[in-house]
Amino acid sequence: MPTTKTPELAGKVALITGGARNIGRAISLDLAAAGIAVAVNTRRSIGDGESAVQEIRNAGGQAELYVADIAEPAAVKAMVANVLQRFGRIDFLVLNASVRTERPFLELTYDEWRTPLSITLDGAFHLCQACLPSMIANGGGSIVTLGGMMALSGADKRVHNSAAKHGLVGLTRALAREFAPHGIRVNCVSPGQMNTIHPPGRSPRPGNALIPMARRGESEEIATAVRFLCSSDASYITGQTIHINGGQMMF
Which of 227, 234, 237, 232 shows the shortest CA–CA distance to 34? Predict the structure, then answer.
């Protein structure tokens, strides 16, 4: 874990959902390296979460693992209460947790439709309601949601995931307007094709020919953007979607 402690961020506290693997892990490590105490949330990747927390601690940072299903309101309330008891505040909320299953639309069951919505949107609802009071009491904060290209482009066999991510962009903008008077900024980071570990059964990844930069992104490149949006360098940025996709989609 690189040492990039940022004085203005030292002593702040961040809660990262899906913070144990892939992009979420990179975000956890990056924010911790900046001096932020990190609450790493996972639902099932407990071993990976424990490894991330230990790596942070070995580097001199502060971190705790919180196992909770963010689709469950009671689990979210209990987790946030525990984070506040442990660290005393929450300054940054990173909504990274999601699922990306595939199913042709006409074969998609209602339960399969609801799964990404319950994690991506319901989870965001529960967490924002639970964490915003601490940010308001602290006089400000930053919420960063993790979108994806499929929110705008669509994707075969992923209509449920595309709808969930698109809804997250709407939630980001609405919260940005409502909570700007409290000094709370809300933005979305939208990754393109990334070098991450995918579960078995997913469709083969396309090549890099459609990416102007001719490569996939690295999780650390997303983490850097998240840290920027948490910092005072992004003090006049809210309600925005930052696209990090090597030029594959341009806006």
Answer: 227
Structure tokens at 198: 């995918």
Bridge partners (DSSP) of residue 94 are 16, 144
Number of domains forming the structure of the chain: 1
What is the torsional sign of CA 62, 146, 222, 196? positive
Give me the domain span that covers residue 238.
Answer: 13-244
Cα separation, 157 vs 154, in Å, equals: 9
- Cβ contact 61:32 at 8 Å: yes
- Cβ neighbours of 235 (radius 10 Å): 11
Determine the residue type at 114. Answer: R
| Residue 217 lies inside a defined structural domain of this protein | yes
- pLDDT by 10-residue block (mean), the chain, 251 residues: 74 97 97 98 97 98 98 98 98 95 95 96 98 98 94 87 95 98 98 78 66 91 98 98 91 79
For 163, list phi and psi in degrees, rounded to 5: -65, -40
Question: What CATH number is given to the structural domain containing 237?
Answer: 3.40.50.720
H-assigned helices in 59-158 = 73-87, 110-117, 123-138, 150-153
**Residue 1 counted as domain residue:** no
User: Sheet harboring 37-42: ordered strands across?
Assistant: 63-67, 37-42, 13-17, 92-95, 141-146, 184-191, 241-244
Q: Global pTM?
A: 0.94
